[in-house]
Design goal:
This protein is mostly helical. It is about 70% helix and about 0% strand. It is globular, with a radius of gyration of 21 Å. The N and C termini lie close together (about 10 Å).
Length: about 325
């Protein structure tokens, strides 16, 4: 693809002349999730400001709920991060995984030192850990290793005023990144761009995301019995992350998959629909991690991986070849 932005290629695909694609609906889905991400990131900043000025178990919990609400549209929009949107490392900026607790603590100390010296704190985006998972560590843990209850977190924040200030700074940076992604993703002027490769790029991304959601996020930590391998281990929201990933693919795929198969290949569309629905049913039955014995979740985790693997095979063996041939 020429050095034209993938976001414009996506818009070209969504608003193009493919008569089989309900393009406006797919575009609205993409736009809606980005808009929702921005709105909820702003609410997260407001909750972080309240927490900074009035640390309490109640304000901690309100900020946690705002974090959880903002994370869902992010997980749903991840499947659109292809081409230049991926090259620009939006996932690294907004999600920030993996992170080491020690790096976050070092960054917090740097922030405290700058405040003490009266310097302009982080006038430029800091190069260290950032995004949802830094906030997760600060909101759900005291030591960066074990989850803590809201009252203990509130006590720690009260004892160290620089910590809630740092938390608020990370929240504001996350909001700015979400707003920047929306601006990048939704340009005001829709230029014509080559979009023939885009269905294949999206399908490749979905196959990769299925592997990540069903194996890396769920099966691997369950098989090893290691809560430390769970992506959202402090908040215990891994199961919701996976469900939102699948929801995003299911919604977009319902509109995209019919455009890459022939009219007489409706069975492939039916297999995609049935496979996604099966994955979602299993994901919604996952227990909360790590609030359960991981070993007890093994049958469900294995079922989710098997269902996701069948969908990956459908993409790589049937859908991707058709998308690439059309390109």
């Amino acid at each position: 693809m020429h050095r034209r932005t993938t976001r414009l290629s996506l818009l070209s695909l969504l608003t193009g002349e493919r008569s089989t694609a309900p393009a406006p609906a797919l575009e609205r889905e993409w736009q809606g999730q980005l808009e929702n991400l921005v709105i909820r990131s702003r609410r997260l900043v407001a909750a972080a400001d309240t927490l900074r000025h009035r640390p309490s178990p109640e304000s901690v919990r309100e900020c946690q709920l705002a974090w959880e609400a903002a994370r869902l549209p992010w997980e749903r929009v991840e499947g659109f991060l292809v081409g230049e949107l991926r090259e620009e490392e939006w996932a690294e900026r907004i999600d920030g995984w993996p992170i080491l607790p020690e790096e976050v603590e070092a960054q917090s100390r740097d922030y405290r030192a700058q405040r003490k010296d009266g310097a302009t704190v982080q006038a430029d985006p800091w190069p260290g850990p950032r995004g949802f998972h830094v906030l997760e560590l600060l909101l759900y843990s005291v030591d960066g290793h074990q989850p803590a209850l809201p009252d203990r977190i509130a006590t720690a924040l009260t004892a160290d005023p620089d910590r809630p200030a740092f938390l608020g700074a990370v929240a504001r940076e996350l909001r700015e990144d979400c707003e920047a992604l929306r601006r990048v993703g939704l340009p005001h002027e829709r230029e014509q761009a080559e979009s023939s490769r885009l269905p294949g790029l999206l399908l490749e991304r979905w196959a990769e995301l299925l592997e990540e959601a069903c194996f890396s996020k769920v099966l691997l930590p369950v098989q090893r019995g290691d809560p430390g391998l769970l992506e959202s281990r402090w908040s215990g929201s891994t199961h919701r992350d996976v469900e939102a990933n699948l929801e995003g693919m299911a919604r977009a795929g319902r509109l995209l998959v019919p455009t890459v198969v022939r009219p007489d290949e409706g069975h492939l569309v039916e297999r995609w629909e049935a496979g996604m629905e099966h994955c979602l049913r299993i994901a919604r039955s996952l227990p909360e991690f790590p609030g359960t014995d991981l070993a007890s979740a093994l049958p469900t985790a294995e079922s989710l991986f098997a269902a996701g693997h069948r969908l990956m095979e459908l993409i790589t063996a049937d859908l991707l070849p058709r998308a690439r041939a059309a390109a």
